[in-house]
Amino acid sequence: MKNSAVRLTFLGGVNEVGGNKILLEDFNYNVKILLDFGINIKDYNDQYDRNEVPNSIKELVKLGLLPEAEKLAIINLYTDYHVKKNQDSNDLETNLDGIFVSHPHKDHFFGLSFVNRNIPIYTGVFTKKIISAYYKCSKTSIINNYGGLNWKLFRTGDILDIKGLEIIPVHVDHSIPAAYGFIIKTSGGIVVYTGDFRMHGPLAAMTQDFLNEIKNTLKILHQQENKRGEIQKPRETKVKLLICEGTHIHKGAIESENNVEQNLEQLFTKHPFDFLLVKFDRLDWDRFRTFSSIAQKFRWKFIITEKDAYFYYLLNKDEIHESMKNPNIIADDHILILTQGTVKYRWQEKIRQAIYKEEKGHRLIKYNEIKELDSGFFFYITSLRKDVIEKLNPNFRGAFISSSVDPYTEEFIDNNRTLSRFFRKIGIPSYRVHASGHAMPHHLINFIQSVNPEYLIPVHSDQPHFFKTFFKNSKIKVMIPNKNDRFELKSGIVNGSGVF
Ligand SMILES: [Zn+2]
Predict the structure, then answer these.
(1) d(CA 406, ligand 1 centre) in Å
(2) Helix then strand then coil, % of the chain, to nearest 5
């Protein structure tokens, strides 16, 4: 048997929600890859105000928001690529073989803004589209710098080969589209990384596909090992290490996207409001669809800003994702688009042109027209829009519906509490209608039992000790690393500098 040696270094996402960065090194294949390269958004917000940007990448490293490449023996991890347009990178060669991005939430991909442009970025076809749409809708700066990246795109069904190391990406259900888990066939055994996932969403079958593919990979490996005669007595082939997300290992709510729709309908049959301010994560397509279909059903309007409209328009345009054609920014007449002044940016020009081209100009509304809106509209707000609220008809009654992804930050959006507090002052009550993007405790336990790995490392959780409790009488060995801890997978034993 080969002398396997695989090392995993947990650079972020351990004992915390978000900021996942895991360095995987397989010394037999001479491969070094990163699984996700996120930044913990809460830590970032503690350092920088909303309109402030870091001075340099060095500063982010110094603050511990990005890892120190030298300590990891990664050569030229960061870029010198300038944020000005059309500037080619002069980045030197690197020894990092790739960064695998599980899904387009900032706490998993934010670090890409700072990396060497020669590093291959492996991600889903649509994951890249979303990151690009996000990039195009905001001002380019050191923290929004996703140009010139070396994308390598995959779909479910592909098998990626990095110098002999095979990686199988499989779609999973999460609060945004284009989320993947990875099955990695290292020389030290199979490593599975879930990314973020759930089992109670509309696309729960995709998470089941991931589980099926794990089982299938094990079956094939088992047959191969038997054929080669490496196993005298046939034995079970197991996943060596499962790196599993655990955001909600400590709490659950019996909820689903269907419930969100039913609960909203229930509110609609009796409510006395003229308008509803709504907040959800812009990337949460399921939630957008839910609100849009409620608006349509009750003949309400759904108002979004032209920036949001451009973002959705970019994603609508794609041919491959049927599920993202509805709602449709151009075709759906119940969606009104709030325009801001004369055209200043290219994206403004683009979205207005697209609307005029289809003779839908009547759906563009100006700020001073907000007051004249008839009763019966949703106003989609991602952040505190005092400018909008001041312009609403003062005789209207309204409420705020908080429906964002989760109470912690996966993106840069206002805290629900800050919003509720503000609305309370001006006489707007708050409701919460929600379904989480993360698996509930019983789903996580069932999933882990089904995979039945030798070792389990929870990530994306600030309550990892729950995993220890749940599996204390099981053969599954749970390890809880601290930041920067290393683990080695070596001929069947795992050594680490961690706490176990
Ligand atoms: Zn996520």
Answers:
(1) 10
(2) 30, 20, 45
